[in-house]
Amino acid sequence: MHVSILGYESFMPEHEVDNDFFEIDPKRLKRGMFAGAHLRRHVERETCSAMLAQATRKLIDRFSLDVETDIDLMMTHVNLGDQFFSGHGLILAKMIGAKPKFIYDLENSGCISFVFMAQLAQTLMQQGMVKTALLGCAQAAGGRIYSHPDLRGKPQASIPGDGCGVAYLRAGSESPILSVETCSYPEYSEDMEIVYPDGRKWWEPGIGPFSVKFDRSKIAKVITRGNAMVPGAVHAACRPLGIAPKDIDFLVTNQPNTLFLRNWREALELPPERHLNTFSQYGNLFGAAIPVTLSEATRDQVLFDGARVCLAGFSHAGDYAGALIYQHGRRYSEA
């Protein structure tokens, strides 16, 4: 059985932030690990659940969905949640009036969560447990963390942007997933950490915002891992199809910075116009980057029927990686 990705939609906060907002030496914004973003959106009062609902309503209208019967499975990934308890999928279902059979919040796998969710949805459909799925990824660290006055001067503060993207999947061959590969690397699971200025644990009371710790030795290791993991995942996804990465029509990845974007497309021998991204206008959208970029590419009519589209990336300090290839918008024939 084939499983198809039928379409994408996105929602971006209204508040646009340029580089003048950050207290960073302009030279540092032009080179290195934390360079290249010119604009980004920051949440102000928006919740991640509300952003997901806004994007989902666009999908509902576009495909004329009956929310009570046309969404069997709902999965969400949010990197900085609205609350600790119910999860965003349950709140999203409440907001749009949906009654899914299954609701899962996939809170690991970070920047590559969309591929992991699509793989899980495909598995459940092939087992006959569901026929349709709504996937959603939202990011809010830009406005919720790095807009704080105490953090604006950190080099990494200018990179995150906020927003969300959603996708609708259905059993069938309209726009089928052809191959998917995912990997987990437990040995890197503790290489990214949240720190507070007073050294407290995140659950302990105190004063002062937290941030993600980056030191030079870890940055070098993450760059080395990322440079290898993403091309490796793409090659692995291409192998069952008997194609090379250069045979891919479009590559869409997570977008940590311009350094990774350049290195990945060069390693895969793809020209810039075939590696789609929204980094310059939205910054690093973490898990939301892939569906947001595909939503914009759909809106701008960049994707053509029959195109092989590869979604790939890695997360955090290299603990998860994956790649998925699907054929866009044309019924697939194995013949």
From TrEMBL:
Sorted UniProt keywords: Acyltransferase, Transferase
Pfam families on file: ACP_syn_III, ACP_syn_III_C
Gene Ontology molecular function: 3-oxoacyl-[acyl-carrier-protein] synthase activity
Domain Beta-ketoacyl-[acyl-carrier-protein] synthase III N-terminal: start-end pairs: 108-184
Residue ranges constituting the Beta-ketoacyl-[acyl-carrier-protein] synthase III C-terminal domain according to the UniProt record: 242-326
GO biological process, alphabetically ordered: fatty acid biosynthetic process; secondary metabolite biosynthetic process
UniProt superkingdom: Bacteria
The keyword Transferase is annotated on this UniProt entry: yes
The name this protein goes by in its record: 3-oxoacyl-ACP synthase
Coiled-coil boundaries: none
